């Protein structure tokens, strides 16, 4: 029926066109956004650099969106076309700009366009931007810890932005053509003498690039401020979007809905605080709307931001704490929020009601603590034993510490360390026999090394638990090399013809799946035996993929069987999604039995690659876990965003000690 209707519509269109003797109008071309983010491709020689640029560019698109501006994403292949109709172009790691690309950029700025150039070594682009590029500079950790802006900065620009950059492409402004907008400071706030941002008539130049290591809200605010500085009308666009998006918090579609929720609170003190916050949010919205009518976009944006912050605070006050639940954070850096000052990090976590910290201190390629099984990292050599320092600061405050051990991934190993693995035949191979970045779970020597690392962690440190991560294969393709074939055939007792094709089709595929699961589970079982032997009473936990049983086939990770066989105390499914219905669906399946729910600490992707959650979304996902009777939650990751945007809100009610109630 649909096909007939479509054909009839075509016929009628032709007839109408013939009767009226005029052509059918073409569909209007889609409007381009005034803002575009362009990642290096043709201007970069190495494929790894291209992937890096694309990844950072995607984050920049999100930061623009969260600040209120929609930005398109393009590579630098056809700049003449890409820049057509744009007002602002953010260049992410366009290193070696070619002659035709430079001409397109010159034409763009010549017609009033604004460039924001991040991490380029191009002399031509630098000259266009009023900048002189210097040498590439790699520094010790903590040297470039934040960007501090001077007094003469675009309206609404943050005073400082936290970001740990390991290197920069040094640059200075050309006299009379540009000035320093911000400088790099070290972790103590001391100036380094190196420019972070330079401004000129053509736009803005950054000596590194904005990275996804936290302080996301400030980075979005900065990008909108830079765009709005040269094109004030964009402030109106951003303010309208910020106002529309910011009025939606949790279940509320308008701030007024928060008043009814506040009035239903039984506690008078909390009711008053919540009502006051919502009332101020409503006032801020009205003022912002009036400023928009008056055409004062930058001021309206600030009030829209204030409205949202007050609504989040109100929503936070309205939450109830649950006594005894596990409230964990993953610390990916392994150094806390303030490297060199674990006491400050732990005081902040205690104030926020956090009970557990999972500190990333060991992997096949490094150890931030005193281990013999793994190579000690530059962090350990220059800044000391991070696990010992964390334990000394956390235990007096009642915070449990878990040593986070990465199992089979070698992503963070040095080239030398990977060469050692390759020489020992420890690396998995892809179907073409090329070594991958993953250790072979079926290799007994690999498992022995990891178990030895676990033994040293348990015996040398009073940790409360050992936390396993990357306890899996990467995928099927990267585990079907010649070594895997030999081990699999030895295990089944007969050869497999037509490998690897046979491993992808049943019935051999089913055998391969079961065999891979057994290899991964063997490490977990070994770790459990070790823990019971040398550290009875301490925990063994693991970060796992949330979708079970699909993770069984995909990566050999059958974590439900770990629970059933008693190999693990708790699993932390990484349910990294911004969709509350999808999160609730995942959690519902994970906790479908009482035994499963008693072992689930739900993982929230606050600042994960897959998701970005504001404080209201964190609250809603934690409440979904509570409704499913999970035993707690774990927040990824301990960074500036968690510190500044999430913990201050959830400690108002969700994790507040004073309001804790028993289940």
Give me the count of strands: 22
Strand order of the largest sheet: 2-1-3-4-11-10-9-6-7
How much is the average pLDDT?
A: 93
Amount of beta strand: 15-25%
CATH homologous group name of the largest domain:
Glycosidases
N- to C-terminal distance: 56 Å
The number of domains: 3
Low-confidence stretches: 1-29, 658-663
**Biggest sheet details:** 9 strands, mixed
Give a topology summary.
Layout: H1 2-20, E1 35-39, H2 47-67, E2 71-75, H3 79-82, E3 88-92, H4 99-110, E4 114-118, H5 123-128, E5 131-138, E6 146-149, E7 160-162, E8 167-173, E9 178-185, E10 191-200, E11 203-206, H6 216-230, H7 233-246, H8 255-263, H9 268-293, H10 297-317, E12 326-331, H11 342-351, E13 356-363, E14 366-367, H12 378-383, H13 386-394, E15 400-406, H14 415-423, E16 427-429, E17 435-439, H15 444-460, E18 465-469, H16 482-492, H17 508-534, E19 539-545, H18 550-555, H19 559-564, E20 570-574, H20 580-590, H21 594-597, E21 601-605, H22 615-627, E22 632-636, H23 640-650
What does the model show?
- With 663 residues, this protein is α/β, with parallel strands linked by helices.
- The protein folds into 3 domains: 35-228, Class I glutamine amidotransferase (GATase) domain (Rossmann fold, 3-Layer(aba) Sandwich), CATH 3.40.50; 235-317; 326-546 and 553-576 and 616-659, Glycosidases (TIM Barrel, Alpha-Beta Barrel), CATH 3.20.20.80.
- 43% of the residues lie in helices and 18% in strands.
- The protein has 23 helices and 22 strands.
- The strands form 4 sheets. It has a 9-stranded mixed sheet with strand order 2-1-3-4-11-10-9-6-7, with helices on both faces. Strands 12, 13, 14, 15, 18, 19, 20, 21 and 22 form a 9-stranded mixed sheet that branches. A two-stranded antiparallel sheet has the order 5-8.
- The longest helix has 27 residues, at 508-534.
- It is globular and about 75 Å long.
- Mean pLDDT is 93; it is low at 1-29 and 658-663.
């Amino acid at each position: 029926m649909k096909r007939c209707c479509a054909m009839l519509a075509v016929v009628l269109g032709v007839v109408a066109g013939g009767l009226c003797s005029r052509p059918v109008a073409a569909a209007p071309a889609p409007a381009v956004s005034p803002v575009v983010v362009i990642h290096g491709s043709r201007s970069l020689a190495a494929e790894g650099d291209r992937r890096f640029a694309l990844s950072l560019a995607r984050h920049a698109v999100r930061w623009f969106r969260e600040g209120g501006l929609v930005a398109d994403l393009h590579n630098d292949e056809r700049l003449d076309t890409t820049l057509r109709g744009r007002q602002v172009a953010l260049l992410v790691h366009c290193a070696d700009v070619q002659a035709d690309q430079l001409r397109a950029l010159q034409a763009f700025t010549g017609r009033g366009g604004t460039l924001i150039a991040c991490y380029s070594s191009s002399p031509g682009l630098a000259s266009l931007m009023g900048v002189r590029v210097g040498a590439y500079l790699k520094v010790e950790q903590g040297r470039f810890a934040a960007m501090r802006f001077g007094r003469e900065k675009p309206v609404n620009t943050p005073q400082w932005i936290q970001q740990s950059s390991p290197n920069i492409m040094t640059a200075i402004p050309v006299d009379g053509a540009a000035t320093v907008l911000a400088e790099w400071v070290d972790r103590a706030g001391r100036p380094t003498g190196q420019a972070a941002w330079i401004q000129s008539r053509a736009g803005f130049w950054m000596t590194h690039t904005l990275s996804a290591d936290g302080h996301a809200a400030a980075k979005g605010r900065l990008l909108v401020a830079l765009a709005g500085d040269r094109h004030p009308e964009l402030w109106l666009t951003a303010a309208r979007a910020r106002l529309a998006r910011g009025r939606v918090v949790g279940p509320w579609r308008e701030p007024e809905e928060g008043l009814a929720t506040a009035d239903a609170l039984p506690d008078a003190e909390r009711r008053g605080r919540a009502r006051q916050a919502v009332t101020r949010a409503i006032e801020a919205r009205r003022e912002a709307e009036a400023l928009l009518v008056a055409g004062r976009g930058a001021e309206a944006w600030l009030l829209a931001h204030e409205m949202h912050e007050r609504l989040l605070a109100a929503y936070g006050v309205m939450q109830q704490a649950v006594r005894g639940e596990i409230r964990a954070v993953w610390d990916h850096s392994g150094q806390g929020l303030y490297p060199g000052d674990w006491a400050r990090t732990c005081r902040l976590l205690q104030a926020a009601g956090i009970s557990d910290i999972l500190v990333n201190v060991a992997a096949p390629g490094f150890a931030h603590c005193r281990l013999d099984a793994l190579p000690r990292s530059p962090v350990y050599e220059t800044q000391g034993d991070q696990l010992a320092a964390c334990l000394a600061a956390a235990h007096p405050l009642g915070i449990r510490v878990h040593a986070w051990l990465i199992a089979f991934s070698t992503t963070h190993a040095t080239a030398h360390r990977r060469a050692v693995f390759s020489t020992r035949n420890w690396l998995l191979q892809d179907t073409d026999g090329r070594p991958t970045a993953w250790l072979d779970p079926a290799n007994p020597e690999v498992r022995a090394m990891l178990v030895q690392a676990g033994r040293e962690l348990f015996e040398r440190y009073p940790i409360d638990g050992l936390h396993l991560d990357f306890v899996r294969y990467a995928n099927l393709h990267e585990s079907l090399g010649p070594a895997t074939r030999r081990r699999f055939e030895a295990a089944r007792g007969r050869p497999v013809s037509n490998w690897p094709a046979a491993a992808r089709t049943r019935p051999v595929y089913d055998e391969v799946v079961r065999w891979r699961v057994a290899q991964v589970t063997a490490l977990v079982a070994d770790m459990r035996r070790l823990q019971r032997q040398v550290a009875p009473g301490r925990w063994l936990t693991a970060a796992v993929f949330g979708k079970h049983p699909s993770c069984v086939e995909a990566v050999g990770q059958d974590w439900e069987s770990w629970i059933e066989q008693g190999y693990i105390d708790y699993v932390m499914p990484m349910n990294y999604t911004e969709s509350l219905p999808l999160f609730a669906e995942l959690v519902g399946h994970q906790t479908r039995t009482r035994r499963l729910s008693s072992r689930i600490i739900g993982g929230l992707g606050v600042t994960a690659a897959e998701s970005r959650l504001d404080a209201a979304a964190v609250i809603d996902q934690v409440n979904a876990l509570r409704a499913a009777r999970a035993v707690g939650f774990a927040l990824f990751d301990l960074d500036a965003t968690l510190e500044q945007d999430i913990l201050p809100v959830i400690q108002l009610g969700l994790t507040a000690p004073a309001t804790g109630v028993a289940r």
